[in-house]
Amino acid sequence: MDNNNKQRKRGGGKHFSSSVPLSLLLLFGSIFQFFLQLTSSQSYKRGLQAVEFILTIMIIVFLNPNLSFAKQSKINGLKMNVIDRCWRLNPEWRRHRSQLATCSVGYAGKMTNNMDKDLIYYKVTDVSDNPINPKPGTLRYGASMIQGKVWITFERDMNIKLEKPLLISSFTTIDGRGVNVHIADNACLMIFKATNVIIHGIQVHHCKPQAPGIVMGPEGKVTPLGHVDGDAIRLVTASNIWIDHNTLYDCPDGLLDVTRGSINVTISNNWFKNQDKVMLLGHDDGYIRDRNMKVTVVYNHFGPNCNQRMPRIRHGYAHVANNFYQGWVQYAIGGSMGPSLKSEANLFIAPMIGSKEVTWRKDSQKNGDRWEFHSVNDAFENGASFEITKGGRVPKPNYNKEQSFEVVDVKFVRSLTRSSGPDHDFPTPEGKILPFFGRLWVMRDLNPRHRGS
Prior knowledge:
16% of the residues lie in helices and 30% in strands. The chain is α/β, with parallel strands linked by helices. The protein folds into two domains: 18-65; 78-416, Single-stranded right-handed beta-helix, Pectin lyase-like (Pectate Lyase C-like, 3 Solenoid). The strands form seven sheets. It has a ten-stranded parallel sheet with strand order 2-3-6-9-14-17-21-25-28-31, with helices on one face. The longest helix has 20 residues, at 22-41. It comes from Flemingia macrophylla.
């Protein structure tokens, strides 16, 4: 692009009543005494955590004595993004899991095709995997063998090692809420010529390349597969896909690829970390079917230790909004073959050393004057800058009613993305208190550095 056609964007007390009913204080005192006894009778660590939990409740009650549960829920809701407000504030969400399908935004639209009276609820009880003849109770059996609309949950915390890539059938939801599910250390996930798929609340990491072979594919059909590079999640000719609240990291190729004509994809509330190539949108420079690709990237947390491709886009269109970028090495957003991208109300924090520029464009004399990269209401810290297309139109996502959502002021991005990843795996600064699922958690216990992840 000619230097004259470029420009850069840069960025460089309440009063509380302390009156608490005596009966409430006596109640807290009794509970506190109980947990002190627990400390002496069980492991010190468990007892200390329990005492810390009770102290947290007492602090909140002292500081907010006049807040009803309904008012507190409303305040908590204001700190959540629109997806999370849709279901997290319902204390009965476990009994109404399929409500989640009404909460998606962006190009995936509402995933209501994944819910109705014919929906089959399937629970994973077995961590084993047979890629050709999967057993009932395994993840592969639920994702590949059962025909119709399937909602998959997990009986308990699980570490699943797949023997071959898992091909997920159309109208399948993988819902890891409430448990800690890892898919790791071998093959990972693929959505191949499927539609209406939700992947929510799991961790996928340390995936490995796979040699060609055969696997049980969608609708119980044996499917030949070529070489697989080792992506965490790969979309191939897929449509209406929602990837939400997952943690992806440490894979030899990429973490999330949207390729070969895939369309109408929303990538939201995920935590991407410890990775060279993070997200690829568009198969290769010659695959022109990806011109129809439309992807929404919203409320995600990128970092720490991410190098590039957040995302890298070819041909198609991406709306990248309200994401938190915790540094990069080469670049954050890049691409080739004249894609269109609207970066809106994202927070970009440049690394202490290395490139401060957010964007990268592959050199191309043929397509160099067709770039449509625009930054609208983004924020830049630590010297970050964004090279935008000057004089061109700002591409709009043109969402329909079901896809549309309000892009929030960038000053709220830290709050909107603090629950990225599964509900037990927040990328949140330690030492802060977060009201969540009607409970109060101490962030020190949730920070991954303290959990050995």
